[in-house]
Predict the 3D structure of the following.
Amino acid sequence: MELTRMTAAELSAALAGGDVSATEVTRAHLDRIAAVDDRVHAFLHVAADRALEQARDIDARRHNGENLGPLAGVPVAVKDVFATKGLPTTCGSRILQGWHPPYDATIVQRLRQAGAIILGKTNMDEFAMGSSTENSAYGTSRNPWDLDKIPGGSSGGSSAAVAAYEAPLAIGTDTGGSIRQPAAVCGIVGTKPTYGGSSRYGVVAFASSLDTPGPFGRTVLDAALLHEAMSGHDPMDSTSIDAPVPPVVAAAREADVSGMRIGVVAELGGEGYQPGVLARFAESVELLESLGAKVTEVSCPHFRYALPAYYLIAPSECSSNLARFDAMRYGLRVGDDGTRDAEEVMALTREQGFGAEVKRRIILGAYALSSGYYDAYYGKAQQVRTLIIRDFDAAFGQVDVLVSPSTPTTAFRIGERADDPMAMYLADLATIPSDLAGNAAISVPCGLADEDGLPAGLQVMAPAMADDRLYRVAAAVEAAFTRRWGHPLLAEAKGL
Amino acid sequence: MTVSDTLVPYLEATERYEPVIGLETHVELGTRTKMFCGCTTTFGAEPNSQTCPVCLGLPGSLPVVNRMAIEYAIRIGLALNCTIAEWCRFARKNYFYPDMPKNFQISQYDEPLCTDGYLDVEVNGRTIRVGIERVHLEEDTGKSLHVGGATGRIHGAEYSLVDYNRAGIPLVEIVTRPVTGTGADAPVAARLYVTELRDLLRSLGVSDVRMEEGSLRCDVNTSLAPRGASQWGTRTETKNVNSLRSVERAVHFEIERQAAVLDAGGRVIQETRHFHEDTGTTTSGRSKEEAQDYRYFPEPDLVPVAPPRDWVEQIRASLPEAPAKVRARLRTEWNVSAVEMDAIVNAGALDLVLQTVAAGASAPDARKWWLGELSRRAHDTGTELAALPISPRQVARISELVAAGTLNDRLARDVIDAVLAGEGTPDEVVEARGLAVVSDDSALTAAIDEAIAANPEVAAKIRDGKIAAAGVLVGAVRKATGGKADAARVRELILQRLT
Amino acid sequence: MPITRDEVAHLARLSRIALSEAELDHLAPQLDQIITAVAQVQEVAAEGIPPTSHATGLTNVYRDDEPTPCLTPAEALDQAPAVEQQRFKVPRILGEM
């Protein structure tokens, strides 16, 4: 089999068994990138030399009999929001053009220590704000299923890279759905781990209380392997949970849902959801029942306020997080011709360095936090957040996991919602509640919508620190559907 | 630049107006590392040599709270009789300024760590209880050098150079309640509050508290209201108050200035003013078109601080005796008056005296040297007492040599001179200069003979029974021996010879 | 309407973004629309409901007062737009805070 068609698990076995070298695997993926990325534009930076160097090092160590972990020699693509020492880190923004961080994000360090081969940095909506990757200052990425369609966002580059076989694994971040939604529209697997389950140190902050780094893979097991490798407590992150990573790989392998209680969230479906997406979702629910799960409907009445609450909390935090981009210490500096003062240079730099969506959210955030408005907007949103958490708690008192479609529609056309922020925000309808609550959630492919033949995703949600339940359910669904289809969903995509 | 302000003479101003003062003090904690990262905090290090992604606020960096800073802040709160919060959070104070790497400061807003305390200050014989509204933690900013302007200040500068070594160092902010009823003593009360606070903080070991180094910073608020008015006046905030004396002068000036404004029927503008060391005046800070909205919200990168009560009690049990209590106890032990004790404290001598006593000197001796000769030296050279190049041990040694008879007072002063001049330790100086008291009779005889020969009338008087006249001859002998003669012995010998 | 063009201009200044007139024209109505939508949260009855600022429930996370390696001045200044005397050179600052 072509190396780029293999899953991470298969590559891992082949590498461990000496059937193939890390150098060969890396080279194959670099060749693939060279062949297709001019069309997909998943990558902002390909670190070919460093990757091959890392691969050679892994090969040498394995040759010397060193015991290496499961990801050693397996290529990974890294969303450009993660600080990578010595490699460019732009966050999809002009304001960080040319920035080379002097340090690695904790997760990047862990991947390096695990021996994973970092192929490069992937495209994203600027500062993780968006659902289509169209907000990137460096051009949009394209959905490998249909190059005129969005790959989702904000982790669109990572998702497209995996779906286009440019990398078997990728990491992204999920704040309002930015891993799950791209995974759903690209027909792959993406997880938002429990908030605090994976370190935010070195992840350029968008919304600090929501940002969660997580894995992409073409299979549930692949995502689980990456999830395990990247997660765990980090003393450099005060919000990091000091507890063992839930047994996600074991759960993915077990894939047994018999006896599990599954709740369908009444509020996440119906109006605003594409019929084809709803149809595939309904089938997924039937499938789960046939696999021995007990399915009921549950109501989470405050979920309909999740979107407005999110679009108050996230912009508020980001308006503060992005204040540091002021041309003084790194990044873009505009207008410093000796006649202007620091404030003018800051304002000109930020005007030119930030895109429209980022500006919208900064101003929105400043508004929501203003004295006089705080209680009615930010304060209220945080109360709504409490109510959403209580809805989840009540629901999880009755069921083990909740399910819904991952996103209301399949991949929409590039340009279709680009200047309609409200329409764009709707892509996050189903994913936002888990971000607000800090729970774990996954998107797994559940078929193609009849209307357009594009992928739809099934979202599974679990209580905080019960990430393993996600993989148990997702793996069961994946196995059953793959049996039914005769091949993984991605095989349906036209080749690139 | 503002035109010279009209001023009402101080006593007149305080006759007609009642001042209310308030103080905000920032204390740089002496922890080994910064508030939110492990960078060292050494004063005077090379620029930008003590930074990391966290205190530089690099994208992706995250803060982690220094437990020792919490402990120090609790210590301060307990020493100020505050309530320690059971649960509180950090908050972001958002504003743009190049010396703040994140363009927000992690501070505390409506949930400070310590609240509702007090500090008693003795002002001209009465005790004023200064209410402490809050004590909270925050991070310090970097430091800017302004280049191109005339005075190195911001006005007229062409550009600035920023050093972030100081960014992230833990600061404790101590805010008083408005202090009323000080009347004409307001400026002194302000100074004495800062002094007492400084001494208290020093005794806790939480900071160097050196105003000249910036580890203790003060902003003073002043307002005036007509005597008998039911409402307080509008207050101004004065910054750049860099010494205890400046605290007093700043309040003094503001009272005179505000009185003139009010006398003229005007209204005092609520504003931030800048104190000028050289002129003792305050000037208006840059007026802002829009008031600052800091958009405070709870810091999402940090989790709440909920100090367990047993930890708080442990800290309380480890607090040292407060300086006020130490002074009261010593007054009794040393049997000195309040005025004398004040003199010791005001001279900055208390610690030095205590250390000298600890090194073996008697308390009266220690006080005599520090408040007498050494205070004179300090004054003459314009140095602080503690900065004199002589240590309490050395003073104790000199005291010991005098008690042993090796030195007399005059010689002791010579030794002090020499030690201050850097000639060595007391013993080295005594050795090198041969300063030991001469009490060997044979050495003295020659000098005595000379003195008698040179002063026949005096010698005659002594023979006649006027013993007191011996003093003249003693003086002559001492002069002849360069002050080294043991005066008592010389007198004895003279009387032996002549009577 | 919840937000006027002037308010948007004020917030942009507060946020140190020099919006052009054209951008103001474009963004202000969009922001108005968004704020109207998010104001929905005010419909929720939330008497006595505590706000959630931290989802994890963690408290008392600290580090020891032990030094860790710093960046060298070269590393710290490496990405600076301008450097002089081993410091970050920035345009003139108007006024003290």
Summary: Chain A has a mean pLDDT of 97. Chain A touches chain C through 66 residues (CB under 8 Å). Residues 184 and 457 of chain A are 4 Å apart (CA to CA). The first helix of chain A runs from residue 8 to 16.
